[in-house]
Amino acid sequence: MAQARRPFLKMNGLGNDFVVWDARDQPLRLTPEVIAKLGDRASGIGFDQMITVERSPAGVDAFMRIHNCDGSQVDACGNATRCIGRLLIEETSRHVVTIETNAGLLHASVGTARGSITVDMGKPRLRWDQIPLGEEFADTRAIELQIGPIDDPILHTPATVNMGNPHGIFWVKDIEAYDLSKVGPLLEHHPVFPEGANISLAHIFAPDEIRVKVWERGVGLTEACGTAACAVAVAAARDKKAGRKSTIHLPGGPLHIEWRVSDDHVLMTGPTEVEFEGEIDLETLEWVRTAPGDADLAAEAFA
Fold first, then answer.
1. Main localization of the protein (predicted)?
2. What's the CA gap between 119 and 229, in Å, rounded?
3. Which domain holds residue 155?
């Protein structure tokens, strides 16, 4: 088949890694089973999410389609938005680009540090039916949910926020004191989250400095999750635990989050990296690296 071999980019934002396809001129549709095979770190390319860049129905710079490594499709991914924003900024030589997603239009702009990109993630959704939750809660800053014995729960009363994806945030004194690989799957699929949820453990260790560990819906433990960082920052500010500007420290590194007062939009700033360029045979799923990553903001394979 003429379209069997396709080039791709392997990128990451703070270790949250992606395979990126340019499908604007040559459409690409892979089954969830094929995506899961490609996402397997032992036998495939390995990634947290697969990103397909397509022509935008809304007429903006591009549409970004997001699949988790298990093949499921999701509406938002903050770190991936920074990566695609970087590619489009390089391609257009503009300082600001607009990316269409299933969660709406997102604007990416050049950050202050080399390789840094800022994404306007829009307004957080805070009502129970916007997150959504399986039952009505008047106050989503701390909902009634716990794991473990009633009189001595392991985790309880999470804050909930939607930043394009549903998030549950548990405030703890030590994020390493809990085995998130065990409790994460239970909470991700808890009935209170009818669409599933990303689950975060968060510890405020200094003013406006928050350490976070994330179990990502459809992915598992991840080095970084941009929408989770935004959700944690919003939840902390709502509950007066932090100000409107905070640094979220994830295993992969820090993200700088501002919940802007003027319009309630959440701005996320952090680094991006091209790990390598590759090519794959979509019939056999055999792939090769064709070029190393470029730390100097060059991604010629995409352009």
1. cytoplasm
2. 13
3. 146-264
- Which residue among 69, 77, 83, 230 is the active-site one? 77
102 is in an annotated binding site: no
Nearest by Cα to 134 from 187, 71, 75: 187
Known active-site residue 225: yes
Per the structure, the count of domains in the chain is 2
Q: Is residue 94 part of a domain?
A: yes
On whether 79 is known to bind a ligand per the annotation, the reply is yes
The pair of three-digit structure tokens given for residue 67, joined into one six-digit string: 């699949």
Q: Are residues 67 and 23 in the same domain?
A: yes
19 and 112, same domain (yes or no)? yes
Token representation of residue 84 = 């695609």
Is 165 annotated to bind a ligand? Reply is yes
Q: Are residues 174 and 76 in the same domain?
A: no
We report the CATH number of the domain holding residue 167 as 3.10.310.10
Residue-wise pLDDT tens digits, 221-267: 999 999 999 999 999 999 999 999 999 999 999 999 999 999 999 99
83 is catalytic: no
